[in-house]
Every structure is written in structure tokens, then in C-alpha cells.
Design a protein that fits this description.
Rossmann fold, two-stranded antiparallel sheet, single chain, 10 helices, 12 strands, binds beta-D-galactopyranuronic acid
């Protein structure tokens, strides 16, 4: 009996913690479109009191705030309103980085007066030829800034990091981690097109494991006697999104950057984060979600691929504790993820899926955009403008954009090519 119990424990562990193949073999995961349950989505344009929202003003004055509050209370948790003083320091600058094509700058944002306390390191690559302020892509990354490029000038992250990534030993980055995520950041292409890239390590804000919110930035906001966030207060995604807004605060002060043209980007759990950051902080001019899936762009009610229960069980620290009430009870959620995209309206949002990334439910990601369209139209924008999923490798959309490309869960050059075209279009540059 004991051996059997141990075996099940072990098997469950393998299933839960091995990415890719194990996920697609889980018997509790639905990948059959015909088994997607019937569902009714909450209507983005019907207020909680039943009133139909039919003007942009009503949306702006009442409904938008109502939806934002629902996401705070039930999904991601509230972000503390308290402003903390943040000090920035330019740590290093190289005017002839990447063979003279880029300016590389590293800036640290300190969140307390203790320089060894919580802080966030920004890596900035700007085109060397830039005249004046440049638009930038801003995104958090999984492997530390040194993972973005095998550029020996970048400071090595000293923060806790998940083991398993290239060059990570005993939860710390080593020299061998330089460039570990280079294929996810199309640095040359971004620079060639006249954009800058600003990245930071997500673990600077909250290391990605469930420690009861003792490390990272959460404790900076506890009221006296508080030891962890209340059930309706922020989890890790909330903290990561908060960091993106602090990065934007800094960019507003940096005269090499056009802070009115910042596209916030993220992949996977960090795609969930870029959407939540863009929903809360309207200074982000464009929002991009790459393969963000459950709790990101995908509709929770479809229960295709990863579900609310599966994500809450595996990553209890990502969302607020209240979100767990909706494990296996998606129909009770007062929102669904199309309303998260609607919060970004009328600003451009781009959602990308990958054909083999069924865990993230590509169709559910697409349908969220379709259902957000009515809000875009109410605000005088075209939205996505299509209701049928486009063929693979065929981007679609107007104010909002979508593609599903061949391949699996990753950020590829193809994805970046679409984001650059989208940014060109919306930032009104030549395409
Ligand atoms: C998976 C998780 C997804 C996605 C992904 C990632 O294990 O189930 O929701 O966020 O991780 O961030 O890479």
C-alpha cells in the first residue's frame, strides 16, 4: 500500500513538473474540441447591475473600473496603491556595444534605501544611430539579463533562479548562462528597425516559487503585523506587473526613450503578466502576449489544455488566493479573459499562439480577442475585424492583432517580425 501511494505521489510529481510531453499525456486535460463544454461568457458591456453600456463615456466612467476591480478581487489580486520611493542608478553604459550597432545601458532601480534590498536591474539596448527618443519593447525575462545576449558586458544576475535552465547551478546564474535565452529576443532585428529593447529578470521582483511571499517585493507593502497578502491581494503575476510599471516610470525619465511609445511584451507566464500590466497601467501604448494561455489570453471557460484548477494547483503563488475558488468552477468567475483584453482597449493588443502549444489553447486565445472586439468598436476602433481563426503563419487584425504560427511554446523570430510590423503600424512608422 505504502509503495503504491509513493508511486502515485512520484507519478503525479513527474506529470506536474515535467514540461511539454508529460503535459500532453495528462488524462485530466482536454485536447478534444468536441469536448469543450457549453459556456456563456460574461458580457463586457453589461454592468453588474444589468445596465447595458452603450457609450464610450459609460465604458470609461463606469464599466472599465468595474471589470478592473473584478480582475483584482478574483484573479490577480489588488496591487497596493502605496507608492514607494524608487531610486535609479545608471550602473554601466557602452556606446559601442554589439559591434558598434547599439548603445547598451544597465540601470538599477532600488526599492528601498538599502542597496542590497529588493531591486530591479534593467538592461537597455538602443540603436546606436538613433536620433532623439526611440520607441522600445519592454519585457521581463526568465533567465536574467545576461541570458538575453551572449554579451560579456552584461552584469550577471545574482538572484535566485530556477534550476534546469542553461548555466544555472544551485539556483544561481553562472557565466555559462550568458545568451541562454538569446533566441527569444531578436535584438538585432529590433535595433535594425529603429526600436530599443529593455529587459529585466522577473525574479528580481518575486522569485518564482511558493515561499508564502516572504521574498521579493511583497513584504515592502505589508501593513504592520501582516505576513502574507490577503486573499484578494496580489500574487506573483501582480508583483511582476508592478515591476513593469516601475520600469516604465524610469523610462519616462530617460531622454533616450520615447515613453509614449512603449510596447510591453511577455511570453507564457510573463505574457499573462504583460496583459495584466497593460490592463492596469494605461501608459503602455501597445501590449503583446506571446503564448500566454490560461490566466493570460485564453478563455478559462473553454477548459481546453491547462485549466484554472491545474494552474492553481501547480502555481498557487501566481494569482490571488481567491482565484482558487474557481478551480473546477470556471462558470462562476465574474469575468473571463476577453475582458482582460477589453481593459486594454482602445490601445493595440497583439495575441500570438503556436500550433503545437495546445496546453495554452490557441483557439481560446483567439476567441478572447474576438469577444473583446465589441469594446474596441464602442471606442471607435476596428478591433480584430475577423471572427474565423486565420490559417497558420497568416497574421490577422487591425487595432488588435493575432497569429498562430507553426511550432511550439516559444518566442521565435517569426513572432518578433509580427510584433515589429504591428508596432510600426501603430507607432506610425514606415512598414
Ligand atoms: C507552464 C504553465 C503555463 C505557462 C508556462 C510558462 O508550466 O502551465 O501556464 O505559463 O508554464 O510560463 O512557461
Amino acid at each position: 500500500m505504502r509503495t503504491r501511494a509513493l508511486f502515485f505521489f512520484f507519478a503525479a510529481g513527474v506529470i506536474l513538473f515535467s514540461p511539454g510531453v508529460a503535459q500532453t499525456q495528462r488524462p485530466d486535460i482536454n485536447y478534444d474540441e468536441s469536448k469543450v463544454p457549453q459556456y456563456v461568457l460574461p458580457d463586457a458591456l453589461t454592468m453588474a447591475n444589468g445596465e447595458r453600456v452603450s457609450t464610450a463615456k459609460r465604458w470609461r466612467d463606469k464599466r472599465r473600473g468595474e471589470i478592473l476591480q473584478l480582475f483584482e478581487e478574483h484573479v490577480y489580486g489588488t496591487t497596493p496603491g502605496k507608492k514607494i520611493p524608487v531610486k535609479s542608478e545608471v550602473i554601466a553604459a557602452d556606446k559601442a556595444a554589439l559591434g558598434g550597432t547599439a548603445i547598451r545601458k544597465e540601470v538599477t532601480l532600488y526599492f528601498t534605501s538599502d542597496k542590497n534590498g529588493p531591486r530591479m536591474d534593467l538592461l537597455m539596448y538602443l540603436p546606436a544611430t538613433a536620433k532623439g527618443r526611440v520607441p522600445v519593447f519592454l519585457g521581463l525575462g526568465f533567465s536574467g539579463n545576461q541570458g538575453v545576449r551572449a554579451d560579456p558586458g552584461i552584469r550577471l544576475s545574482t538572484q535566485w533562479m530556477r534550476n534546469g535552465g542553461p548555466g544555472v547551478v544551485d539556483n544561481r546564474a553562472t557565466e555559462a548562462s550568458r545568451g541562454a535565452s538569446a533566441s527569444s529576443w531578436a535584438v538585432e532585428k529590433i535595433l535594425e528597425r529603429g526600436y530599443g529593447l529593455v529587459t529585466a529578470y522577473y525574479g528580481d521582483l518575486d522569485p518564482d516559487f511558493d515561499d508564502g511571499f516572504q521574498n521579493g517585493i511583497h513584504p515592502l507593502f505589508y501593513h504592520p503585523g501582516q505576513t502574507r497578502p490577503d486573499p484578494g491581494e496580489w500574487g506573483s503575476i501582480g508583483a511582476w506587473a508592478w515591476g513593469l510599471s516601475r520600469a516604465l516610470d524610469y523610462l519616462e525619465k530617460d531622454d533616450s526613450v520615447d515613453a509614449k511609445r512603449v510596447a510591453v511584451f511577455g511570453h507564457s507566464r510573463l505574457g499573462k503578466t504583460s496583459l495584466w500590466a497593460g490592463a492596469q497601467d494605461e501608459r503602455f501604448a501597445i501590449v503583446i502576449s506571446n503564448d500566454s494561455g490560461c490566466g493570460g489570453a485564453a478563455l478559462s471557460r473553454r477548459r481546453f489544455g491547462e485549466t484554472v484548477k491545474v494552474i492553481n494547483d501547480a502555481f498557487p503563488h501566481w494569482f490571488c488566493a481567491n482565484f482558487r475558488k474557481y478551480s473546477d468552477a470556471e462558470d462562476k468567475l465574474p469575468v473571463d479573459q476577453h475582458m482582460l483584453l477589453a481593459l486594454i482597449a482602445p490601445r493595440p493588443v497583439y495575441v500570438a499562439s503556436a500550433e503545437e502549444d495546445r496546453w495554452a489553447d490557441p483557439k481560446g486565445e483567439f476567441l478572447s480577442l474576438v469577444h473583446a472586439d465589441q469594446v474596441y468598436r464602442l471606442l471607435g476602433k476596428e478591433g480584430l475585424g475577423v471572427t474565423d481563426m486565420p490559417p497558420v503563419n497568416t497574421p490577422a487584425g487591425k487595432t488588435t492583432g493575432y497569429h498562430i504560427r507553426t511550432g511550439g511554446h516559444a518566442v521565435t523570430d517569426y513572432d518578433w517580425a509580427q510584433y515589429l510590423n504591428f508596432a510600426d503600424r501603430h507607432f506610425r512608422r514606415a512598414n
